[in-house]
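Troubleshooting: if your tokenizer reports a length mismatch, compare your output against this known-good record of 132 residues.
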Amino acid sequence: MKKTLGILKPDLYKRNLQKNALKDLENIFGPISQYKHMTFSKELAENFYQEHKEKPFFSKLVNIITSAPVVVFILEGDDIITKYRENIGATNPKEAKEGTLRKKYGISIDENSFHGSANETDAIREINLIFN
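Known-good structure output:
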């Protein structure tokens, strides 16, 4: 059984849509047993996004994820990383397929409402950062 980390990002909180998004996720994946509400510190955000440290958008990522509370959660299942990423859709909501969560909730490439681990290595690292 594989695991992935998901995040309902600050833009959902700012629009008070986190409960709706959680319901949608549970309709797709079943009950989510491991989740918590939290606010990223700057230090945690910088560590979380460490692979982007040298990229020009790094500080924007940190500022966005620390701007309001989030819901972090773990999903489990066979091929869960691929399944979750397919259901949230493309990073840019304008390019996301109809029926995906980013198409439904996302505002822009910066405020795209959901995070999903890119691969198994990232999922393990991210889960350990947030839940340990």
